[in-house]
Amino acid sequence: MASLPSFDEEKVQNALEAASRHNDTVGLKAADGAPNILGGGEYAALAECISVTVSDNKICLNLPLGIGSVCIPIPLSVPDGTAAQACLSICTTWGIPTGVKVTISVGGVTIVTKSFGKC
Q: Residues 44, 117, 59, 14: is their CA dihedral positive or negative?
């Protein structure tokens, strides 16, 4: 089996670092010492977009953070061989990775969004 498209590990790390900087910027605690509910919480940072091709009504790729190989079904109206774009966002809560979100687009139009873990 041919190797599946993958996202660049350095770009994944950059997204994780952005989440960490977000928490550093807004602060994990409010002025009174309580958790900063408005500033913390969920945060998703785009890691990278890659070119993929529709095959057998799905897009298969490798995901980071130990998730591994996945196939995402796409609408049947998109024929095999169609060029598409898969974008990966890293999801964190309070700076801790909780999952990833993959957005599949064809011709600039989002056709599927799938989360793995909590996003």
A: positive
